[in-house]
Amino acid sequence: MRVRRHSLLTRLLASSVLVAVCSISATAWLASQGTSGAIRREQDQTLITDTRINDTLLGYGATHASWDGVDQTVRDLAGRTGRRIALTTESGEPIADSSATPLPAKPSVVIDPLRVDVTLVPGAAKDRIDPRAVGPFKLPSAERSRLRKIANVGAVCVRRNGLEANVVLSPSGRPSVEIPSKDTYATSTCASKRLNSPTVTERKALRQLNHLVNRCLVSQGKFEVTLALDLSWTLFGSRPSAVPRVLDQQPVSACLASARREQLKAYVAPAALLYLGSSAQAPSTELTSAGVARIAGTALLVLLFAVAVSVVVSTRLARPVRALTEAAQRMRQGDSSARVTVTATGEVGELSEAFNRMSEHLEQMEVQRKAMVSDVSHELRTPLSNLRGWLEAVQDGVAELDPELIASLVEEILLLQHIVDDLQELALADAGKLRLHPEPVNVADLLDQVATAHRGRAESAGLTLTTRIAGAPELLADPVRLRQAVGNLVSNAVHYTPPGGRITLSGRLTDGHVLIEVADTGAGIAPEHLPRVFDRFWREEKSRNRRTGGSGLGLAIVRNLAEAHHGTVSVASTPGEGTVFRMRLPVEPDPQA
């Protein structure tokens, strides 16, 4: 097969090779050991630097009530790390900046001592409160000095037992004796209750915190608790050693976290946005000649493999597309039965199925078009034949052109006009331009008019046509269009009801709607045909006899007219017993619908 320059196969192969060359070259270069190692080292160093900057500024915010004076800290950090550092408020107001250049597009992190970002502080407490934020628990110098003396005495006691001991200070300034060996005897012997007892400052802060926690718990209908200095808790009024194992501790934890934030809010700096610029130094990405050779060899092998795969895939993809092209050309030449065999999957398979559906639809439309021409000509022939027959009879002197005959001829002309108008109305309905002229309509009068107009035909066919009205239903509708819709239903019933049968027109008011029914005792409609009865140009029987078939437009027009009145039409039928058509129309249609 000759491959054309702009064929799908040629373009697909060219694009596949181009993509393979570009992607493999870029991937091989970026995936090299030297560059990857340099990038990893740079990323690790950047993360360490960012963590250090974040921790320093968090510590400042946790120990200061505002960001005033943070400028020197920012400049020192920028000088040590080589990073551009800027702090702004959450609304964007500048706080401190190590450079006058424009800020980056997005902040790197939010500095908030009361809601620590766990991505940069993996070991943060569960409540995400920086441990350096102590607020009212910070000990004054006098209490700190007193506790430090007690702690020194305890450390000396431990050392006398031959163990190592250190005095460490918590962020609040409270000292404690740290024994690395964890000797329980020395700990119990040298422990001092005075060292572990809360000071005046701590008791005051603890009472305030306890009040905030219990207020939160009571608002949730929970139990009150008593907090210890290490923020452990017991039920209010219980022994300090009591541990509420069976109680839900989640509310206490949540209330404790929210209470601590409320208590510390006035002692820490507000949340700020941290912007970090690029590092002044870039990683080295140079490769050795051996490394370049290995990368080039690997890239060449992968490229050959990609080209081979592209050839196979492109050929398989082009085959169903070629079949689609040939089928489309046959359809262009007038073969509406052109189909393709669906063998591919994915988009090409879906395209093949869509083409087959389109071809089938076009074939059906062609059949319907031919049927439409035949059906419309059949419908027009009947009134035209009547007109011609009577006019020729008058011309030959067989009949007299009296008022009654004129009225009959006018009626035939109107029928002819209605058939033509029906076709136009269907087109207008399809375009959404069907115009109605609504006015108050008495349903009883309308049904009597329809029954009177069709009673002659019904009696000629040996049928009984009656009306049945419940109450005095009225609605706002176009009376001409409504008579046309009901008349189509009655004509349909006359066509399909055998002699001796009954046709009943009924109307009643129900749930703000007028329900109009046309019931007959005809042959009925098979269940498999019910979904198609309102399709235009469709008839259950294809006979051209006026007794058993029509144009196939009547019920389609009924549906369009019902929908134009914001109503619905439905059908129920039992073969051998009869059929009931129901029009459900609103009393006052919504003009916005």
> Which range best describes the helical content: under 10%, 10-25%, 25-40%, 40-55%, 55-70% or over 70%?
40-55%
> What is the structural class?
alpha+beta
The CATH superfamily title of the domain at 436-586 = Histidine kinase-like ATPase, C-terminal domain
SSE succession: HHHEEEHEEHHHEEHEHHHEHEEHEEHEE
CATH topology of the domain at 436-586: Heat Shock Protein 90
CATH top level assignment of the domain at 436-586: Alpha Beta
What amount of the residues lies in strands? 5-15%
Low-confidence stretches: 1-6, 280-285, 543-550
First-last Cα distance: 59 Å
Number of strands: 15
Strand order of the largest sheet: 10-12-13-15-14
Count of DSSP-assigned helices: 14
What spatial form do the alpha-carbon principal axes imply?
elongated
CATH architecture of the domain at 436-586: 2-Layer Sandwich
**CA gyration radius, whole angstroms:** 46 Å
Mean of residue pLDDT values: 80
Q: How can the largest sheet be summarized? A: 5 strands, mixed
Tell me what the structure shows.
- The protein is an alpha+beta fold.
- Among the domains are: 8-32 and 287-332, no CATH class; 359-431, Helix Hairpins, CATH 1.10.287.130; 436-586, Histidine kinase-like ATPase, C-terminal domain (Heat Shock Protein 90, 2-Layer Sandwich), CATH 3.30.565.
- Helix content is 51%, strand content 13%.
- A five-stranded mixed β-sheet has the order 10-12-13-15-14. A four-stranded antiparallel β-sheet has the order 2-1-8-3, with helices on one face.
- Helix 13 (479-496) runs antiparallel to helix 14 (554-564).
